[in-house]
Amino acid sequence: MRYFFKLNVMSCIYAFLFFLHAESLGNVYRLERITNWTGIYHALNWANLALLAVSLILCYWLSKRLVSGRKSAYAAAVLWIPYFILWIWGFSMLFPLTNPGDDPAPVTGLIFMFEMIVFPFYIAFNTFLSAQLPAIRKGIKS
Asked: What's the average model confidence in pLDDT over 59-71?
């Protein structure tokens, strides 16, 4: 039961990181309107790249520490979806879209769909690295 809790915590963290990325891309016009900063799109691109780098390191470390060594750790590649839906639902309830000018561009949905298809592979790759990299290092040293 303790392992199941750890696996769900990891899935929630993955979902939160993807939620941050999705909301920063989906709410560019809202952030631009609120901050009056016209170059916010470029800043968000850099922030999303930094988030990707930090998430790779953070999730590698957490996955290695919490769920490494079991095949069921790959279930996080699917378990993040309900948490992502909860994050999106909670955000939309707390901050509803009231200005029609804040709607994201139509192509943003296609980008999100592509990212949601690729993200489970990112999670599986990260889980694989956290489980196999120490074994690969041992093989190289001997």
From this structure: 79
> What confidence tier does 135 reach under pLDDT thresholds 50, 70, 90?
low
Q: Residue 88: is its pLDDT beyond 80?
A: yes
Question: How far apart, in whole angstroms, are the C-alpha atoms of residue 96 and residue 108?
Answer: 18
Task: Give the separation between CA 139 and CA 133, rounded to whole angstroms.
Answer: 10
Q: How far apart are CA 86 and CA 24, in angstroms?
A: 17
Cα 91 to Cα 1, 62, 127, 137, distances in angstroms: 30, 25, 28, 42
Residue type at 44 in one-letter notation: L
- Asked if 75 and 7 count as a contact pair (C-beta separation under 8 A), the reply is yes
